[in-house]
Write a structure and sequence with these properties.
single chain, alpha/beta, 9-stranded mixed sheet, 13 strands, 37% helix, 26% strand
């Protein structure tokens, strides 16, 4: 069973409105330089991009915040920015979508992570990353943990860990925060990276992609049986309720405690850009779990959300109306 009725989908998605989702993770700024290419540079064998416009969006954990807001939820983000133009732009953008910035910590010793993509004729030509990925200082980490716990104890419908391995998510933070959420019966959804994988517990669901699942389990994927072994191993070692392995054009594979793996075929009609698709998946899962959905229902809804955003160029968001329309087909 990998389907959900239209009425049930509407019930869950309608309940997204106003759900409070706490996001902890690496926030960044996604800059886009748009243009066209008509010739190759005489200086080097590279395309010459004629600039037409520039845009900037919230990226990383910020894209999760944007997706939560666009789906009707209320996001509260805990992250770190630098004392620079990119950090100030992130603050402005968060305020513009109605998200409080009380959980943003400014670190004068760090640069705000910024990814600059040059796009020509709907194709990415090059990406330039500006980042610092060392762990937070002990003092800043302690301040953040204290504030997160206070916020969890106040009000939270679901907790998201959006780990981009840029230093915000640490072993100590996970060990202090996740048990608090678990004791409070707050669902926990984790978009992982390899560095912290052993520490993502307790959790409701972890969403590795194929490469992450293969590397963290040290299983080379030669056939479907290898993927099944990996999913079960992650479930066993992380003691989570569910594992959702995202497999690109092959869809998703959901592992649940006490149940058989469920294959969820992709619903994407066209794939233009996979940028931020994982952020959309974890956002839809979190809001679904917060709205009373089962892991299977949350995964199906997230699969449809991902199918929508990969059909758009750049870091994109999905809206409830689009999601309902996709689930009604």
């Amino acid at each position: 069973m990998n389907e959900i009725s239209k009425s049930r989908a509407n019930e869950i998605i309608s309940a997204f409105q106003g759900k409070t989702i706490i996001i902890i993770g690496d926030i960044m700024l996604d800059r886009y330089i748009w243009g066209s290419v008509s010739r190759i540079s005489p200086e080097a064998p590279v395309p010459v991009v004629k600039l037409s416009r520039e845009t900037a969006l919230l990226g990383g954990a910020g894209n999760v915040v944007s997706n939560i807001a666009s789906l009707g939820g209320k996001a509260s983000c805990f992250s770190v920015i630098g004392d620079d133009h990119a950090g100030k732009e992130i603050v402005r953008k968060l305020k513009n979508i109605g998200t409080d910035t009380d959980g943003l910590f400014e670190d004068h010793s760090r640069k705000t992570t910024m990814k600059t993509r040059v796009i020509a004729h709907s194709q990415q030509v090059v990406r330039i990353d500006r980042e610092m990925d060392q762990p937070l200082s002990n003092a800043l980490e302690a301040r953040m943990i204290k504030k997160i716990i206070q916020r969890l104890e106040k009000s939270c419908s679901c907790l998201i860990i959006s780990d981009y391995d840029k230093g915000v998510i640490t072993k100590r933070l996970l060990r202090k925060v996740l048990p608090v959420a678990w004791r409070a019966r707050i669902p926990v959804a984790i978009d992982p990276k390899l560095t912290n994988f052993p520490h993502y517990k307790p959790a409701s669901i972890i969403t590795p992609n194929l490469l992450e699942a293969s590397r963290v389990t040290a299983i080379e994927f030669k056939n479907n049986q290898d993927i099944l072994k990996a999913g079960n191993k992650i479930m066993r070692e992380n003691r989570c309720r569910g594992v959702l392995i995202t497999m690109g054009e092959k869809g998703m594979l959901l592992f649940q405690k006490g149940g058989k793996p469920i294959q969820i075929p992709t619903v994407a009609k066209e794939v233009y850009d996979v940028t931020g698709a994982g952020d959309t998946v974890i956002s839809a899962i979190a809001l679904s779990l917060a709205s009373g959905a089962s892991l299977m229902e949350a995964s199906i809804i997230a699969n449809h959300a991902a199918g929508i955003v990969v059909g758009k160029i750049g870091t994109a968001m999905v809206h409830p109306e689009e999601l309902l329309e996709s689930l009604s087909v």
